[in-house]
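Forum > Structural Biology > Help requests

Title: Can anyone predict the 3D structure of Gluconolactonase?

Hi all, first post here. I have the sequence for Gluconolactonase but no way to get a structure on my laptop. I'd be grateful if someone could post the structure tokens.
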Amino acid sequence: MRIGLVEFLLILAIASLTVGPQVALFVDRWMRRANRASAQAARRRAEYAAQAAAERDALLKRFRTASTVFGVCILLALVYALVLRPIDTPPQRYKAPETRQDTGAAQTALSTDSKDSWDLGEYQGVDCIREQDGLVYAAAYNGAALKKRTSDLVRTDGGHYAAILSVEGELTGFDFDQNGDLWLTVVTTSGGALCRARHDSWGAAVEQVVTQIDGAPLGAISAVEVGPDGKVYFTVVGDEPVDNGLESALRTELLAHTGTGWVYVYDPADRSVQRVLGGVAGASGLALSADGETLYVSDLGSRCVWSVDAAARELTAGGRDCGSAADSLPGYPGALALDEDGALYISFRWSRSDWLEQNADSTFLRGVALRAGQNLQQKLFRMTADAPCAAVVDPATGAWKRTITGRAMNSCAAACPVGSKVYFGAVGSARLLQARV
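Reply #1:
Sure, ran it for you. Structure tokens for Gluconolactonase below:
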């Protein structure tokens, strides 16, 4: 039987009326279930997002709290380290000295010719220079920390050099006596020592002669001079710790200004030690006149050089029988030397610091600098290129004869006039610098 178009359309109409509502209901239920599933998924996603946001906020809050606590701890530690931490050398108030103005003295510059600077090889600093029998001797060190430092006495003629004696620690000064024996000042972590090396045993044995005064260990011993009568004069910077060597002790005294430096004399005949001059704010240099009668002492913090009778005892810096050979200096005086004409050469450890002397009456700020450590202190004190690294004065009149400038350096530690030349040693330098005068 054939189905016509009309019959086919009637069958479709009957099927749609019969099955259509069921299909529509099924589709509706399926859509509702899909919508409910989508809504549930959206709710879960929203819950997860809210939970994640809450956890993130809680974590950030904990992090901010921890950061705040850490910052406060760092701040408290910084306040303690710079303000409240006890220090071995509390600063004292003092009156800053005046500064000498331009005197019109002759100006001399350190030589920039490499031929005029003598190379000392692997050494990294020079603390003392002497001339003996036409040769130049220098106390040079290797630059290591004090507890590992070895210092050598180096002999040179400019063409070559040789180490003739070595000591453990820092060799801060030396001088020859009439018998050819060598007297040394040495600083180690345990304290300072005055030592002697016999002429016939240089490099073989160094004898410690003085290591304590009245039962107390010597501090940072800085210079030595031997008189014609054989008596040995030596200086102690002050009561500062010696853990980091002479340079650190000098900076500490410069900031603290305790005025506890001393000049002593040792008599080899009876092995006695006597006080010559006390109350020095950093006894950093020493020179003795050719006749052995007058002693010149660098006062680092007071920026002057004292002149006293070498036979005097128990004097006080600036007091009775203690005169001034040079004062109001433009830098902090260190090593001293006399030439054959009696002129006094004064090397300056550092240029004068405006900040330091403006705070001479402030123990708080200088205490902060003392607590801040060596790196900051080294930045406070340097020798600038335009500042004098040495001066030449007439010790009899105090007249200014010459100013020597030339280059920036960490510290001018040594000076030695020889004829028409002056040799200089610098901290951190392995060369002897020269100026022609």
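The helical segments are 5-84, 245-256, 354-358, 363-372, 374-380. Residues 12 and 394 are 134 Å apart (CA to CA).
Shout if anything looks off.
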